[in-house]
Amino acid sequence: MALIIMLSRRQVVCILIICCSVFHNTYGRSDPSFRVKAVNLGGWLLTEGWIKPSLFDGIVNRDFMDGAGLQFKSVTVGKYLSAELGGGNIIVANRTSASGWETFAVWRINETSYQLRVFNKQFVGVDTDANNVVSATTVVPGDSQTFQIVRNSDDANRVKIKAPNGFFLQVRREEIVTADYDGESGWGDSNPSVFVVNSIRGGQGEFQVTNGYGPRAAQVMKEHWTTFITEEDFKFISENGLNAVRIPVGWWIASDPTPPKPYIGGSLAALDNAFMWAKKYRLLVIVDLHAAPGSQNGNEHSASRDGSLEWGKTESTIQQTLDVIDFLSARYAKDPSFYAIELLNEPTAPGVSLDTVTKYYRDGHQVVRKHSSTTFVIMCNRLSADNTELLSLGSSLDRVVIDVHYYNLYADYFDRMTVQQHIDYVNNNRSAELSTVTTSNGPLTLVGEWVNEWGVSGATKEDYQRFGSAQLALYGRATFGWAYWTYKNVNQHWSLEWMIKNGYIKI
Ligand SMILES: *[C@@H]1O[C@H](CO)[C@@H](O)[C@H](O)[C@H]1NC(C)=O
Ligand SMILES: *[C@@H]1O[C@H](CO)[C@@H](O)[C@H](O)[C@H]1NC(C)=O
Ligand SMILES: *[C@@H]1O[C@H](CO)[C@@H](O)[C@H](O)[C@H]1NC(C)=O
Q1: Which of the residues 39, 80, 112, 184 could staple to 95 if both were Cys, CB 3.0 to 4.6 A apart?
Q2: Could you tell me which Pfam families the record lists for this protein (predicted)?
Q3: How many structural domains is the chain composed of?
């Protein structure tokens, strides 16, 4: 106070400007040496079962969620149901082992009723005009493709499958499966309508959790959104050397509060809260469209229903995605924390072509620019594609960031590496990789996902610290910055909160 009194009015203005620019620098808009040091808020507004498995605990018939693969072994003939030729044909029961044609993907209607999708993507139905023969010929399922799966209360793996005509499926002979059994003769090995079911776990994402809970989903999700990440977490993040959060969201957030079924309204209000807390604790926000309509990679984290990748195969999925970008950019354009928007996380080659993603990114950039001239536009490299393939596009547009994800996982050679080999890999191979995508006049680079985890068993805390330091040193060279995957996770090393609290990582 005393100091200011002695200054002229012009000097006061100067000091204010300096203060403002310091504030701005910590907010990252103007200083070219500024780097994002972010953490992903994975599993919050977009469910990933492995991050918080307990979210699924209350689901009835959890092994029959959307995308689970069911295999049915007839107790009378001892062989598996199979979609002959993979689909478009009859269902038979003559396979001694189960693989693709013998696996039926669940589309869940509710906790008792299901549709079953075969290898070539048709649905199982009953031909009531032809002796109730069971076949898989319909591409768009309806009531005639909806079956009730009835479990034996003494042995949950024994099931009967009730067809829409009111009768149970039965195996008459290995080549003849019909829906005409009245089902009143117990659960023994001589009952041709009894099957032993084996469920192969599918993705556990937003579609599975919301559709799995059905009418209870709204309550469960709202509870999750308000407890999994809170204001305290933003405080912790800001106090531990980080300056930003990357927040994965799903496309349905744009139709909040009434998104299409089975999605639940309310994630938008949670994102609004995130912006409010970000402002309070001086954090930047990267909004990351992690799940696009139809799914851009078939994984649970893009909310695929059954592992299929449909994004980009029709113009409408792309237009719908641009509308989501439009909505999010418009909503947050004036918010001082809104630093960047990622147009699409991890589209996967070859399911998503380079042409499709390039055109979408170009259009998406334009959509963002309608609302903001400063927001960075992040373009994620396609998985399993050349990491330089977006460089020319990125160079032709302003304030573009290329996102690359670096995990020392998901390949056999990583599983065989020692601690030192992992560290060398980061220092040499990753370093070379990052250099090829970080060009002087090209787009900025973001290591938008990495984790201090590996396949080394018995690694010590010091090993983790060395690995973490090597990764931090390298990713600090990315010209936009980096983001750890993820903030909270039941798997300790995948939780940056846990890693910081336990001294495994220091930012
Ligand atoms: C489940 O769906 C089926 C088919 O639409 C319907 O007949 C049945 O009443 C539903 N059951 C429950 C518990 O909602
Ligand atoms: C199963 O039955 C179908 C239909 O009769 C037949 O085409 C197929 O060859 C049989 N497969 C085996 C393994 O017996
Ligand atoms: C890492 O780089 C070295 C040196 O270029 C190379 O010999 C090695 O094969 C690379 N490792 C992997 C797993 O690609």
Answers
A1: 80
A2: Cellulase (PF00150), DUF7910 (PF25490)
A3: 2
